[in-house]
């Protein structure tokens, strides 16, 4: 592919592998962004929009978008802060996946059990800047100076092994389920930040003509996320119990209420959060609802 074929196309950066990759691919499918990625090729043209997808390491995406080489991207909120790109990119949408916390961890049975204990010792992390910032502030508060300040050492991966290998007294690493941390005999003593995947666009506005397409893609992705988060709940309810039932299912704007062919009964349809749908159904039945149905959404614009 030569650079001419990218002319005028919106460049959209997607993590090329790792934790965010699969979810990004299903987001693109849900937003009907069609592409065929040839083996090992990191740039590919979208078939049904003037877009080219650029597959990059998640950690490089904030800089590419921030400098305006790429117009849109998906990466972790943590990565943006680590690369100090928050002033150069706009976080357009939180994507609801890649959720985890960046935490300070120490050996469970070791002598250091607070961040104050750990200050001045050796800390290993892949998040050099965020660790330096966190412990820098702590060292300042504890009035540590010179050689007594915390030493931050960078490693590219398998951070959890650093304490057992004698490289560190504590680490700063991502925790989702906590399995990696527990398996390494560590536990968390502080949270540096909470993160999730985000859709970002450049603040550079090098190519203002792309703004309408960016808005369309953003709306489509927002629709896919909402469709995954919500279900439609439909039920029949005696008229005199309607107020109590609609307090349980107020909907995003308001519930839809329709007449049915039975005197004294109404039908209600409302969007509810998927994660709460089972308890909402229990409550509705308790409130007098019958024929309670839940429908998945394929896609939506809300
Ligand atoms: N265990 C996890 N659970 C949820 N999200 C995670 C987890 N680990 C990482 N992430 C998110 O995914 C982003 C990319 O992490 P990942 O380890 O997949 O990429 P990477 O480090 O660039 O890949 P690799 O180490 O394979 O080069 C992280 O910055 C974070 O936002
Ligand atoms: O709390 P958990 O669910 O166990 O997830 C946390 C682990 O996931 C990430 O690493 P990853 O597996 O991506 O590998 P890496 O060490 O190569 O970054 C992170 O660095 C932790 O090690």
UniProtKB/TrEMBL annotation:
Record bears the keyword Glycosyltransferase: yes
Annotated compartments: Cytoplasm
Any GO molecular function: ATP phosphoribosyltransferase activity
First-tier enzyme category under EC: transferase
GO cellular component, one term: cytoplasm
InterPro entries in alphabetical order: ATP-PRT_HisG_long, ATP_PRibTrfase_cat, ATP_PRibTrfase_CS, ATP_PRibTrfase_HisG, HisG_C, N-reg_PII-like_a/b, N-reg_PII/ATP_PRibTrfase_C
Keyword Amino-acid biosynthesis included in the entry's annotation: yes
Domain Histidine biosynthesis HisG C-terminal: 227-299
Keywords: Amino-acid biosynthesis, ATP-binding, Cytoplasm, Glycosyltransferase, Histidine biosynthesis, Nucleotide-binding, Transferase
Predominant location: cytoplasm
Documented EC number(s): 2.4.2.17
GO biological process, alphabetically ordered: L-histidine biosynthetic process
Ranges for domain ATP phosphoribosyltransferase catalytic: 58-221
Pathway the protein contributes to: Amino-acid biosynthesis; L-histidine biosynthesis; L-histidine from 5-phospho-alpha-D-ribose 1-diphosphate: step 1/9
Reaction(s) catalysed (UniProt annotation): 1-(5-phospho-beta-D-ribosyl)-ATP + diphosphate = 5-phospho-alpha-D-ribose 1-diphosphate + ATP
Family note: Belongs to the ATP phosphoribosyltransferase family.
Protein name: ATP phosphoribosyltransferase
Organism listed in the record: Lyophyllum shimeji
């Amino acid at each position: 592919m030569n650079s001419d074929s990218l002319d005028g196309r919106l460049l959209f950066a997607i993590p090329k592998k790792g934790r965010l990759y699969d979810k990004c691919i299903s987001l693109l499918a849900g937003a009907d962004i069609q592409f065929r990625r040839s083996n090992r090729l990191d740039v590919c043209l979208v078939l049904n929009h003037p877009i080219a997808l650029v597959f990059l390491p998640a950690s490089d995406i904030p800089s590419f978008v921030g400098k305006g080489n790429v117009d849109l991207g998906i990466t972790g909120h943590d990565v943006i802060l680590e690369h100090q790109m928050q002033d150069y990119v706009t976080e357009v949408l939180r994507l609801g996946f890649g959720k985890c916390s960046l935490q300070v961890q120490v050996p469970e049975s070791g002598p250091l059990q607070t961040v104050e204990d750990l200050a001045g010792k050796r800390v290993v992390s892949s998040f050099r800047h965020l660790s330096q910032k966190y412990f820098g502030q702590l060292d300042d508060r504890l009035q540590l100076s010179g050689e007594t300040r915390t030493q931050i050492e960078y490693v590219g991966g398998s951070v959890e092994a650093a304490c057992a290998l004698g490289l560190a007294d504590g680490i700063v690493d991502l925790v989702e389920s906590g399995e990696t941390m527990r398996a390494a005999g560590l536990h968390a003593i502080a949270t540096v930040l909470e993160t999730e995947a985000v859709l970002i666009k450049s603040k550079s506005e090098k190519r203002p003509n792309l703004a309408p397409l960016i808005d369309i893609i953003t709306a489509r992705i927002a629709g896919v996320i909402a469709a995954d988060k919500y279900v439609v709940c439909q039920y029949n309810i005696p008229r005199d119990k309607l107020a109590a039932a609609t307090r349980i299912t107020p909907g995003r704007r308001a519930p839809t209420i329709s007449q049915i062919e039975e005197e004294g009964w109404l039908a209600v349809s409302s969007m509810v959060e998927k994660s709460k749908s089972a308890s909402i159904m229990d409550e509705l039945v308790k409130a007098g609802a019958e024929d309670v149905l839940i429908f998945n959404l394929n896609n939506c614009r809300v």
